[in-house]
Amino acid sequence: MATLADYGPEVRAEVKQVREVVSNLHQQLIKWNLVVWTAGNVSQRLHTADLFVIKPSGLRYEYLTPSSMVVVDLDGNVVDGAEAPSSDTASHAYIYRNMPDVYGVVHTHSTYATAWAATGQNIPCGLTMMGDEFGGPVPVGPFRLIGSEAIGKGVVETLKRYPKSPAVLMQNHGPFTIGKDAEGAVKAAAMTEEVAHTMWAARQLGDIIEIDQSDIDKLNDRYQNVYGQH
């Protein structure tokens, strides 16, 4: 079994940098009220090797440090780290193996997004910001048990049907989000909870007015290609 010492200095330097990024981003999950206690995880894939860095299993967020982050390969085997990796490691690995443009994955149990997941419902696209960020509804994925790559398979299968969405609500479980890096996936997790909360509130007031797909496509194109700094 390979260890980090088997990799060159370029890989080891990126591991050091990514450990710091992933450790710090877990604090953003706390800041945006996306997790409680030890639930949830962030990972980021390396560009210099087929490895990724992920949170250790069962450690409270206030105890997380860059050195406690675990380095694993794309089959989920530990390459470096004193702690056992997240119980979702196999699913993160499956996503990275099957979605080569993805370099960040996040899982949370954020309240409103998970409530939609518990009812097996997509979050309907009734907000322009949903058109911007998700290109349509936030989809629900299938029920899968924790501890194998089954959840990752469900995420990948669902996103193939909703290719513009960076988020999946795994039924009876909670949201998984992806990004071009871990920060992008954390942003998607925060946005998922925001729209889940707003659309829940809208439903209390009455029927949700869903946006026409042609307008969603225009919103998404503007947001992805024009909005912000380039």
TrEMBL record:
- The EC designation for this entry is 5.1.3.4
Q: Which GO terms describe its molecular function?
A: aldehyde-lyase activity; L-ribulose-phosphate 4-epimerase activity; metal ion binding
**Per its UniProt record, what Pfam families does this chain match?**
Aldolase_II (PF00596)
Keywords for this protein: Metal-binding, Zinc
Sequence ranges assigned to domain Class II aldolase/adducin N-terminal in this UniProt record = 20-200
User: Its Gene Ontology biological processes?
Assistant: pentose catabolic process
Q: Which reaction does it catalyse?
A: L-ribulose 5-phosphate = D-xylulose 5-phosphate
A GO cellular-component term linked to this record: cytosol
Q: Which InterPro entries match?
A: Aldolase_class_II_sugar_metab, Aldolase_II/adducin_N, Aldolase_II/adducin_N_sf
Superkingdom, according to UniProt?
Bacteria
Cofactors needed by this protein, per the record, are: Zn(2+)
Per the record, the similarity remark reads: Belongs to the aldolase class II family. AraD/FucA subfamily.
Name of the protein this chain belongs to: L-ribulose-5-phosphate 4-epimerase
Q: Tell me the organism.
A: Bifidobacterium simiarum
Name the lineage.
Answer: Bacteria, Bacillati, Actinomycetota, Actinomycetes, Bifidobacteriales
